[in-house]
Automatic annotation (TrEMBL):
The lineage of its organism: Bacteria, Bacillati, Actinomycetota, Actinomycetes, Mycobacteriales. Belongs to the nitrile hydratase subunit alpha family. The keyword Metal-binding applies. This is Thiocyanate hydrolase subunit gamma. SUPFAM superfamilies: Nitrile hydratase alpha chain. InterPro entries: CN_Hdrase_a/SCN_Hdrase_g_sf, CN_Hdrtase_a/SCN_Hdrlase_g, CN_Hdrtase_asu/SCN_Hdrlase_gsu, Thiocyan_Hydrolase_gsu. The keyword Lipid biosynthesis does not apply. One of its GO terms (molecular function) is hydrolase activity.
Length: 234
C-alpha cells in the first residue's frame, strides 16, 4: 500500500455520521421493548410517522376560537383537555392507536395586559407534543432551559420580544406530569377577522411565549434572533 493510499484512508469521510450516545440508548431501548413484546416494529414506525407530522395548527385553531368565543375561552382556561378535544386533539389518547398519554395535566396559560407567560422545561425538554408537535431544537438546549428561568426578559429580547417594564413575566416550568401552552392576547388590527385568518398569525413561538402574534407575521416568517449576552455552554 502506498503513502497515498494511507493518506486517503485517513481523510475519507465515512458514509454514516457518528451517532450520539442518546441515539445508541434509543436504539437499545427500542429493540429491547420490541423483544419484550411491548410493541412491534410496525407499531413503532406508525407512531414515529404520526409524531413527525404533528404541528401547532390545532393549538393555533384553539386560540383563534377562544379569541372569538368567550364561552370557549372560559373552557380553554378551566379545562384545557376538553378544549383540545374541540379542535380534534384527544389529549388522553393523542395518537388514536397507542397507549394513552401519561401526561394528562395540561393547562393553557392566558396572557393579560399585565402578565406574559413563557414555557420551559428546565430539567429536560417536556413539551405539549400532542397539540404543538415536536419541540424546536432551541427549546431543548441548555442555553434556553437554564437562562429563561434566570433572565427571562433578556432571553425574550434575544428572540426579538421586548416587553414593557410594567408587564410581569411568568416562566412556567413543565415537568413529567404537567404540560403548558400559552394563549397570547389578540393583537390590535385584527377586528373582523375570521378564525382562519386569526389562526394563521398564531405561530408556534407565540404558543411557547417567546413571540407575540402580529398581523402579517405567520409561521413562514423567521423572527429576528439576537446573540445571547450570557450564553451557557452545552
Amino acid at each position: 500500500m502506498t503513502d497515498h493510499d494511507h493518506e486517503h484512508q485517513r481523510t475519507v469521510k465515512p458514509m454514516v455520521d457518528e451517532i450520539t450516545d442518546f441515539e445508541v440508548l434509543e436504539i437499545a431501548l427500542r429493540e429491547l421493548c420490541i423483544e419484550k413484546g411491548l410493541f412491534t416494529a410496525e407499531d413503532h414506525r406508525v407512531f414515529t410517522e404520526y409524531a413527525e407530522q404533528i404541528g401547532p395548527t390545532p393549538a393555533a385553531r384553539l386560540v383563534a376560537k377562544a379569541w372569538l368565543d368567550p364561552a370557549f375561552k372560559d373552557l380553554a382556561v378551566t379545562d384545557a383537555v376538553a378544549a383540545a378535544r374541540e379542535v380534534g386533539v384527544d389529549w388522553l389518547d393523542p395518537t388514536g392507536f397507542g397507549t394513552p398519554s401519561d401526561f394528562v395535566a395540561f393547562k393553557i396559560l392566558e396572557d393579560t395586559p399585565t402578565v406574559h407567560h413563557v414555557i420551559v422545561c428546565a430539567l429536560c425538554s417536556c413539551y405539549p407534543r400532542p397539540i404543538l408537535g415536536n419541540s424546536p431544537e432551541w427549546y431543548r438546549t441548555p442555553n434556553y432551559r437554564r437562562r429563561i428561568v434566570r433572565w427571562p426578559r433578556q432571553v425574550l429580547s434575544e428572540f426579538g420580544l421586548q416587553l414593557p417594564d410594567d408587564v410581569e413575566v411568568r416562566v412556567e416550568d413543565s415537568n413529567q406530569k404537567h404540560r403548558f401552552m400559552v394563549m397570547p392576547m389578540r393583537p390590535a388590527g385584527t377586528e373582523g377577522w375570521t378564525e382562519d385568518q386569526l389562526a394563521e398569525i398564531i405561530t408556534r413561538d407565540c404558543l411557547i411565549g417567546v413571540a407575540l402574534p402580529k398581523p402579517g407575521v405567520t409561521t413562514n416568517v423567521t423572527p429576528l434572533v439576537r446573540p445571547a449576552v450570557r450564553p451557557v455552554e452545552a
